[in-house]
Amino acid sequence: MIRYNIPIGISKFEKMRKNDYYYVDKTELIHALVKTEPAEITLFTRPHRFGKTFVMSMLASFFDIRRDSKDLFEGLKIAEDQKLCELWMNQ
């Protein structure tokens, strides 16, 4: 029997990474967010059940100043841009 780690309804980025679940790497959104001109408000609009909460959880993990997040983002697209990570991760 083949078993896959495909969760339904989990929206916590850290839980997805630590439990080795399958998901779409959306870390390129971080790159787009920090490279665009600063705005007072950034609005994320997507249809229902399209991953908005997951993206917010990913952003919170990336920018969280209370802990080191490097291990959570290791192997993901954003980790390839070391300079960006040094400037923005946990800031």
UniProtKB/TrEMBL annotation:
The protein's name in its UniProt record: AAA-ATPase-like domain-containing protein
Pfam assignment, any one: AAA-ATPase_like
Taxonomy, superkingdom: Bacteria
Sequence ranges assigned to domain AAA-ATPase-like in this UniProt record: 7-83
InterPro entries: AAA-ATPase-like_dom (IPR018631)
Lineage start: Bacteria, Bacillati, Bacillota, Clostridia, Lachnospirales
